[in-house]
């Protein structure tokens, strides 16, 4: 801010005449005279010298003109002094503000000094004028003396005030210089601190860039985790579908087991019916043996010839052949049913094993994916903690980073919720697999029991069938032997008939 500088100029001679009567001149009041004090050399008041009457007569018009000029100069000097005081105050304020105003304040102080020197010169001129005026007239000398003394006192008071103010300004200037020096030191410190802050700001900017890169990587990781979560959800839906398919297979296995049970019951009933038929065939063989023995007794007792034994023997042979065919057919049908049941049991067992392996593999894959997602979430959580620690730096302006951190926190919460859902679903799937395993184990135990029972019943049936076949062979051999005996008896009968004919002839 530039201040208007007052420079001493020539004193203009007023055109209006002023009264010659002496006036009491108003004392000049400075604004800071009460509180401030100046120290400057005291002006030497010169006493008027007595001069010769010639000189007084010669210079009396000039003294009258100067006497007219004096009352007009006082307010000008007062205004100049007030202006100087205002400028000194402004200089004081400007000195405190910055170092650049120091030179201006010094210049203004020098201007003030020059103005003071000019004022001193003007005072000397006025004193010379007063001395010249004292030479004019003795009567007016006293008046002029009084006026000069009054003015000297006024000027002295004004000069004392100006000196006090100047001393205060000089002390203020010294304190301002000290303050400027201190401000220089503070400016150096501030510049150093600003350089350090600039370095910190650069490091903070680099950290912000790295954090932005890390946040982009974190967002990519979050997107990858979302994709993995979507794939895991799809895999979960596939696992649920596989579980439902496994349940359907279990239902099919249950149905097949029920059908196997029913077929086994039917085979047991057929075995029972075969056993009943075999018992009936045994009874018939026994009755045939009794009949053969009875026929032998009849043949032995009576040598009569008849066609009834041969007919009965042929009937027995046909019945034995029928029984043998029925036994072979029953054995073949039992073997076919047994093979079919064993094949169905093997197919069911293999399907159950396949379902078990697929469920175990699926469970292992889901557990592996869950562990991978947990590891990625832990890594992402560690990165978020690092970012939170980095964001705690006070020099960092991280509003956008906080927003992105909140977004990543919300994404992390969503991931945690989805992971909890996946864990619960995986637990439910694992429980369902355990339940299926227990059911499959129970079914295997029951199937093993049924296999053991079927093997035992098969062995028993084979033993009974072997026994029946032996009995049938025995009955067949007995029938053959009986046929041979019947042939022999027929031959004997024929011989006897021939001998009887011969005897008749």
Automatic annotation (TrEMBL):
Coiled-coil zones: 173-235, 278-333, 363-499
Biased composition (Polar residues): 32-47
Alphabetized UniProt keyword annotations: Coiled coil
Disordered, as annotated region: 1-79, 93-113
PANTHER family (UniProt xref): INTERACTOR OF CONSTITUTIVE ACTIVE ROPS 2, CHLOROPLASTIC, INTERACTOR OF CONSTITUTIVE ACTIVE ROPS 2, CHLOROPLASTIC-RELATED
Similarity section: Belongs to the ICR family.
Designated name of the protein: Uncharacterized protein
Source species of the chain: Erythranthe guttata (Yellow monkey flower)
